[in-house]
Amino acid sequence: MDAMNGHARMSPLTALILGVFGVLGVIIVAGTAVAVVAVNSIDTSVAQLTGLVDGTVSGVLDNLPEALDTLPETFEKILNDRRDPPYADRLEIEARWAAVDGAQQPVITVVNHGDKVVSMLAVRLAFLDQDGNPHGEWTELAATPVAMECEDLRGPLFPGRTRYVTLSGGCCGHRRPPRLKDGENLAIAVEIAELRVWNGYEQDGGRTALAVPNRSGN
Question: Left if phi > 0, otherwise alpha if psi is -120 to 50, otherwise beta: which for 2?
């Protein structure tokens, strides 16, 4: 009868073994799911933070809003800025070839002729031949909201100040600045890719630019 109805009986030992392995399978699947969620959460947080210092402007701009949401109140006030394209008329930017570490590399000079603190300035360089054809490009952060021991985090540019910039390889050193080859004659075209000014300088009447406030707001 058992053979005809197609159901095979299993011994108690077999049932026990299958049950144990079934429970283990559920545990493994559940554990894997938890691990995947945890890894994704960690990866997102790390990406938001490292995006600010990974040496690429796109990483900075893409991750800045999310990163600001995770910062303490003090840093939120320091990073209180706005995009201000018209202020570009108050900036004097020059790029030229100069001897750096035994090779001809681009250097950038930025003069802030205005009365605002520049919290973010990304400068894009294009290297053009005599026919105007591009032979490469480079984007460099000349000013950032805060200054740290990282070549890409140079800090804000204050009114009336001049900043001299040599191209960096990024905080992780994964970028190699362009060099002028022997016999090569390339002009450097300069473009502002991002420009932001700090709001705090106007809000406190310019008394203390980029002063770190306490929790009471004083």
Answer: alpha
pTM: predicted TM-score of the whole model, two decimal places: 0.59
Looking at domain 83-203, which CATH architecture does it have? Sandwich (2.60)
Residue spans of the domains in the chain: they are 83-203
DSSP string covering 75-129: HHHHT-EEE-GGGGGGEEEEEEEEEETTEEEEEEEEEE-SSS-EEEEEEEEEEE-
Mapped onto helix, strand or coil, the DSSP state of residue 68 is helix
Q: What is the mean pLDDT of the chain?
A: 72
Rounded distance between C-alpha atoms, residue 157 and residue 136, angstroms: 27
Q: For 139-150, give the DSSP string.
A: EEEEE-SSB-SS
Burial 105-121 (b: 16+ CB within 10 A, else e): bbbbebebebebbbbbb
